[in-house]
Amino acid sequence: MKVISRIRQRITASFIEKAGIPEPKLITGLDSPKKLAEIIKNDNHCKVLVMTSAGFIKRGSLEIIFEQFKNNGIEYLVYSEVMPDPTIICIEEAVKVYDDNACDAIFAVGGGSVMDAAKVVGARVANPDVSVRDMQDGGKIKNPIPDLYAMPTTAGTGSEATVAAVVTDEVDGSHYKYSVINFGLVPKYAVMYPQITLSLPPHITAATGMDALTHAVETYTNLYATDRVNKLAKKAVKMIFSNLKVAYEDGSNIEARSNMLNASYYAGVAFTNNFVGYVHAVSHALGALYGIPHGQANAIVLPYVMDQYGSKVYKPLSNLATVVGIEGDDDADRAEKFIEAIRQMNKDMGIPDKVDKLQESDFDTIVTRAMKEANPAYPVPVIWGEEDFKLLLRRLLPR
Q1: How far apart, in Å, are the Cα atoms of 133 and each of 14, 78, 112, 275, 291?
Q2: What is the SS3 string spanning the chain?
Q3: Fewest CB atoms within 10 Å of the CB: 170, 239, 328, 375?
Q4: Residue 17: which of 204, 225, 201, 156 has the closest Cα?
């Protein structure tokens, strides 16, 4: 099984490198809303479906954007019912709004859930005969999605740069998550507007920032990454170590907020080209079962997985340690200090080190889901079996 997995992973890596995954064009700067509206107008769109969450509408956070839409003669309709961990029901409601109002583009402004939902809405609009569940086979998404403009409001998921969207489904009363993956899901534009992140609460700043760190670390420790992907991952790690705690402690620091948005984007591009790993596979299962926010789950699980990989990740983690200024006697020492630095970041930002809701009776379900997601697709440094996952879960049990 391990040999077959490695062969498949090498073939996939070669295909991605040769095919070239599309990347969004960037809109940056303090005048991003103005630039966005002008670009949408120049793209000849007349009616845009705005997908967001209710909080942004209630707070009036999007008025500056809506004003620019009006100035440029762009009609828009708002679907603001996107909840964390978007469901098929939510997606189908937004598809109906899009179709009933003859929209011709989508603007997603929110966290990863909003952007993920917008991607799948676009895929459903363009491929009406393919259900969301059938889109687990990304090859069934044949037609390109409508132009999608994505403005992240958290610096973590990197969804504005990725080919994937995570959907929450329910079967026999049990929630589970799966990914819809297709090159055509990458947004046309990513709008990096740090002002919209200034009101982000500290705990969300922490969790989403650690999500971005997990993307970068898993990408860098995975096998078969290109030099460019590794450079992006290292750049993201360095920026996160330098800026996350600053943004957490002072949410009004526009420079730190801007740097975190950029770091999240770099990490998103990186893992799109070389996947994530067992941290994400386990976190998706934990999130679906217990409702744990994805970024927080990743933050908790990350140091445990890296530690359990052992000597196979000493060299890459040593490299990352050097990037962030951690010194040590050798690769093993630097790697262990880097893992400890992650634990300390979690502690400093109030992120727990155990999964309080975890129950041993759920181990089989979690392991089955994690293995289905990760094996054989993810080019992880060490391929795990059931007992390896259970060892990890035992370490995550509350004291």
Answers
A1: 28, 25, 19, 21, 21
A2: CHHHHHHHHHHHHHHHHHHCCCCCEEEECCCHHHHHHHHHHHCCCCEEEEECEHHHHHHCCCHHHHHHHHHCCCEEEEECECCCCCEHHHHHHHHHHHHHCCCCEEEEEECHHHHHHHHHHHHHHHCCCCCCHHHHCHHHCCCCCCCEEEEECCCCCCHHHCCEEEEEEEECCEEEEEEEECHHHCCCEEEECHHHHCCCCHHHHHHHHHHHHHHHHHHHHCCCCCHHHHHHHHHHHHHHHHHHHHHHHCCCCHHHHHHHHHHHHHHHHHHHHHCCCHHHHHHHHHHHHHCCCHHHHHHHHHHHHHHHHHHHHHHHHHHHHHHCCCCCCCHHHHHHHHHHHHHHHHHHCCCCCCCCCCCHHHHHHHHHHHHHHHCCCCCCCCCCCHHHHHHHHHHHCCC
A3: 170
A4: 225
Determine how many CB atoms are found less than 10 A away from the CB of residue 170: 12
Q: What is the pLDDT of residues 330-375, one digit of tens each?
A: 999 999 999 999 999 999 999 999 999 999 999 999 999 999 999 9
> What confidence category does residue 174 fall into, taking pLDDT thresholds of 50, 70 and 90?
confident
Whether the CA torsion 261, 265, 266, 271 is positive or negative: it is positive
For the four alpha carbons of 390, 391, 397 and 399, in that order, the dihedral sign comes to positive
Contact between 13 and 227 under an 8 Å Cβ cutoff? The reply is no
CA distance 331 to 81: 48
- The pLDDT confidence band at residue 286, using thresholds 50, 70 and 90, is very high
Please name the residues in contact with 20: beta carbons below 8 A apart, sequence gap of 6 or more: none
Residue 229 token pair: 């992907």
The candidate with the shortest Cα–Cα distance to 255, out of 266, 264, 242, is 242
